[in-house]
Design a protein that fits this description.
homotetramer, 389 residues, Rossmann fold, Dihydrodipicolinate Reductase, domain 2, 9-stranded mixed β-sheet, 5-stranded parallel β-sheet, 13 helices, nucleotide binding (chains A, B, C, D), Gfo/Idh/MocA-like_OxRdtase_N (chains A, B, C, D), Gfo/Idh/MocA_oxidoreduct (chains A, B, C, D), Gfo/Idh/MocA-like_OxRdtase_C (chains A, B, C, D)
Chain lengths: 389, 389, 389, 389
Amino acid sequence: MINGESKIARLRWGMIGGGRTGQVGYKHRTGALRDGTYQLVCGAFDLDVERGREFGVNIGVASDRCYADYKELIAKETARPDGVEVVSIATPNFTHFEITKAFLEAGLHVICEKPLFFTVAECEEVRKIAEAKGLIVGVTYGFTGHPLVEQMAMMVKKGMLGDIRIVDLQYTHGFNAGDDTNASEAQKWRTNPKTSGPTFVLGDIGTHLYYLSEVVLPHLKIDKLLCDRKAFIPTREPLEDHATVLMHYDNGARGHLWVSSVDAGNMRSHRYRFVGSKASLEWTDSFPNQLSYEVQGEPVKILHHGMPYLEDETNAIDRMGALHTEGLGDSWANIYLWIAQAIDAKKRGDEAFLKTHRYPGIEAGTEGVRWLENCVRSADAGAVWVDFK
Amino acid sequence: MINGESKIARLRWGMIGGGRTGQVGYKHRTGALRDGTYQLVCGAFDLDVERGREFGVNIGVASDRCYADYKELIAKETARPDGVEVVSIATPNFTHFEITKAFLEAGLHVICEKPLFFTVAECEEVRKIAEAKGLIVGVTYGFTGHPLVEQMAMMVKKGMLGDIRIVDLQYTHGFNAGDDTNASEAQKWRTNPKTSGPTFVLGDIGTHLYYLSEVVLPHLKIDKLLCDRKAFIPTREPLEDHATVLMHYDNGARGHLWVSSVDAGNMRSHRYRFVGSKASLEWTDSFPNQLSYEVQGEPVKILHHGMPYLEDETNAIDRMGALHTEGLGDSWANIYLWIAQAIDAKKRGDEAFLKTHRYPGIEAGTEGVRWLENCVRSADAGAVWVDFK
Amino acid sequence: MINGESKIARLRWGMIGGGRTGQVGYKHRTGALRDGTYQLVCGAFDLDVERGREFGVNIGVASDRCYADYKELIAKETARPDGVEVVSIATPNFTHFEITKAFLEAGLHVICEKPLFFTVAECEEVRKIAEAKGLIVGVTYGFTGHPLVEQMAMMVKKGMLGDIRIVDLQYTHGFNAGDDTNASEAQKWRTNPKTSGPTFVLGDIGTHLYYLSEVVLPHLKIDKLLCDRKAFIPTREPLEDHATVLMHYDNGARGHLWVSSVDAGNMRSHRYRFVGSKASLEWTDSFPNQLSYEVQGEPVKILHHGMPYLEDETNAIDRMGALHTEGLGDSWANIYLWIAQAIDAKKRGDEAFLKTHRYPGIEAGTEGVRWLENCVRSADAGAVWVDFK
Amino acid sequence: MINGESKIARLRWGMIGGGRTGQVGYKHRTGALRDGTYQLVCGAFDLDVERGREFGVNIGVASDRCYADYKELIAKETARPDGVEVVSIATPNFTHFEITKAFLEAGLHVICEKPLFFTVAECEEVRKIAEAKGLIVGVTYGFTGHPLVEQMAMMVKKGMLGDIRIVDLQYTHGFNAGDDTNASEAQKWRTNPKTSGPTFVLGDIGTHLYYLSEVVLPHLKIDKLLCDRKAFIPTREPLEDHATVLMHYDNGARGHLWVSSVDAGNMRSHRYRFVGSKASLEWTDSFPNQLSYEVQGEPVKILHHGMPYLEDETNAIDRMGALHTEGLGDSWANIYLWIAQAIDAKKRGDEAFLKTHRYPGIEAGTEGVRWLENCVRSADAGAVWVDFK
């Protein structure tokens, strides 16, 4: 159980974006600052520089370390002996690649929002730079820090489901069921291919589904895939506000996935079902503290977080204990902790640790973009089957 | 509210199949005998003639009206002045066509299990005979008699969902997750194309999903469809124990559907979600007495059966009243009542009534088979898009 | 599994009350007529004699066997060679005693609504008559026919809960949250002590809780009890629309119970929790097809009706089979079947069968009235503890 | 919506208890350190001084500010110019009074676990000291920071429920269903009156129910009360592991409450139902992000946290936003923030702010102890009604 004890030296941390008008910035800070593993020392929080500075001061950053943009941040911070070590990027998608490269080249670790970049080629380029520089790139797939996600991965690993047959994924909501006449800035950039990249909901929410399924089923690879996408609000074209994806895995398993932001009134967020020859698991982010374990012919079992019958690996990352609810902030805290542990290992040159350490890094980010590329290739060819590559 | 009062003369009713070793026969009798609309007068209940006769007597049929097979039933009953008027067929799929034709030609109304026949051509042939003879063919889509199914249809009709955008359907269970080594007879014929027809789960459970969606969305037609099917237990090939279907509707809506009998441990039966531009409805057969009505931006509303705020049409078919649960038997009772009303109208020559009367008849049965034909055509061509025809 | 087969000769059955304006009459008919165990041959369905006759004819009773009242019914039916054998009483509480006695004295079996009578003394008097005449008195505690109620009783009997410690019962709704200005006739008689007896909600819904708890925990007896009752709508005084009852059982267990008809908006009907030293069971009539079995320190287990892992006794009374919902009508059908089996045994003189046969009879009805007497005695003394007697 | 911005100067904060072997200490740190409102500068974390020092260092406290006990902490810290300002007490109940008094007399604000002290007299004494010194005493009723608790309070305040009639409270679990043979230290002190005070579960979990009901229903006062308590594990006597409490409020409302730690297998934690003449609210800590709002005669409404239709006061304290789960840590963060705001106001002499500011302070702690005193008085007199005083 996590109680905040740590041997890792506190990381000097900065943020790009995540200011007053954004929503995700607070999740980054909630995750990073939970146990003092990170210390927020600087940032370029806002396109409106003065508003960004005021904001930074209000959250405890020294005024002179609230910068106009990432370039100024690099210039000033790399000149300090106590300069920032790792920076989180919580800006629109189209800026991720440029900013990440700049930070890596300046010798700083990076934590970036998903979808990571626009293309796999960009991911590969960044991966090479990071490797060459000995730096970590973390990707904030923020839902995968829940203990019961680890529990699912462990149960699959131990063979409790048998051979995996079916992967059923859904992440839908209705917050974009209306048109974008009064859309916020955060909404506007998401439906413009120049700022959002080649997808809207596939990248915005679908990548969460895909990464979590990879965490639970690391041994499964997609052979081929079919993606059917559509913009129910035509101004969002050529991007999509709704998509279905069918997947054939290399072991013969079948996957299907539904993402939508026009699923009017749906408040159930995301949902995962993993079916094996012996048993199934079902989990939803809406009620993350319980997990349904269903063995054919037996009573359905509801597992609760924090209980001794869970795997040791599950309880090792529990924070609140049985009967006490964990929320998304607890999951983000685990994600940020795991990235910190990766940075610490990288600093120490402990590649053995990194080989087995689970955290959403450049590989995870790359695979998410690869999945999106395949989806778009299928969809744009008329929702046809494409070999996954 | 239904209280059993009726002006329809009691129908003399018989059954083919549905004996001691079957499960579905009891559902037919529960539906038919609920309010005395039908009187069970004869049957050929079992391939084992003596067992069938003993069974018939135990459920109140005269010994001499327990017949060896449908042919004897026709011969003897049509010779009686008080002979049977309508017969239900609860035998394996491959017998439906032959038996239905024989009954119609003998001047008897028919109520048949789904999937109705193997081909649309057979359906068309039967339809012509029925029309020529002035007889009704009912199909026991037994889940569509629940009051809240009617409520969904009425809400869609009144425009409360806006334009329909998404149709999300699922009917999965895990009772065939293991292989068929110890399969019952009822299971064996279902996985043999000679006895089951061109599909297993698509026909066995998928047609329920499709018909219910037609009841709720009568104005939507499928333009094209893609079906991906698979037998996780290879001995079931070329039939499937798992399938996904994507559908494009003529109004631009998107549909997706999942059927499986290898969804290990899943006890949630079937589930329907209808998403419109304004609101969504979600209903499941597992908890048929409540309906989730979700308007984007408003609290989720849970509607309960039997309440005054429901549509008049909904409460007109309620049997138990608010707070008192209805089950599948109540739904079957409505289906059988509606078919009786159709038979009664046909007898009276009341075609005006029949035009607007909702009941699962030959058209519903035909459309189910048509949908299966399209699914198989797509699947067998490699899970490609096919124009619906 | 029940499939309608029976060796019991069909009982000639009549009803007092239960006509067009009542709600409960249809539940009686649904229960009795399900499998042809009873045949409805006569009735006095309505205080409005003509309406009652029209109603009777519409539900299939011969016009000349639709009587003006129970006295005429007795006079005419006992004069027939094929006269009625058993009569159900679905009239207001204050009439139960008089009508029951009259039927018993005329040699007819009786099935009566709960609460049975006003006093234990009346119950004892009726019991003596029934015993002397060799007749059965059934009481329609209609919720106790659900298979999972039997499952709870069997699990307790087998010691799976350990020593019973806590009994937690609730049956509340809000249909009387407003005052009675526009109350229906059915509501008016319930809040008048002359017609309802010494209680309103305690008798109307609380007796269901108490009887079901007796079925599950037959070995527990109440030592003492405290009842606090109140009429939130003052015109209902001295009767109550809300009450809480605390109970001490003879084994040291503690019970608490809440009944209310002013629990605004509550649609969850009744709920039962039985806690033992090893495990607990929780079941609700709202979702009668599943049962929560909770062993401390293990995952919560959800049991579904119709599954092979249930007790044989449970599946013996299942009607629809796994995955197919049962509703209140199925439970009533079991109750009526069990009463028919009791009548049949009584006719055959099979007292051995009657000793172990579970059905809600005169003892159950008496114990319900006894419990009400103790509740009222406590409440009227100022909600103090009273020894149960 | 809370995003971490603050104008309050960071408070220098210390802890007594809450070390490696405790569970609640991490909840305090999660709450206090969330947004940098507090800075942990010192502590006496453990009776095992060395283990406490190692722990303190691991969570970022300077080694020389990890003290042996609260006395040393006071001595050393009050001598520093940058000494601690506020201290949290997470030690067994019997130490609360002595330590709180010592800190107040040393001029430090205090945040203390519940139940606050053993007697109302102790509470009054502490209140006087705090007032004289101009210091705040906060009490960590950690569940009352959830946004939907605020929503309930606002809806009651606006009259959306009408007159309150029924208060139904439950906090039960089964973690003490077995005996205490292998009990942890944390468990042992809780069942010993010397260390736990006059109650076990009533104080340990019942006070949470009571305080939350006060937050939602501040206008209701208890007139009289009856408490029935029992130790199912006899070694816990004279304390209780199970209790029921009946309450009469001054407006005529009725309350009932159930607390237990022998409710085997129950994982639903606490549950609240507030019933008014118009509508009801139901909320549970197990699923804190949704609230059931039930108006009689209307569909049940499920409200979700973070949605625009909630009260402004509710959304003002939301942290994660709609669709993103909040957990117990988010609630504690609000509690600690509110106490910080109280301390800040006290420092500024802003008594007007303090008059309307909701936070669990000395009054809340006192009322909890008063409620326990009344419960014990009733229970020990034989579970009789007592006037609340």
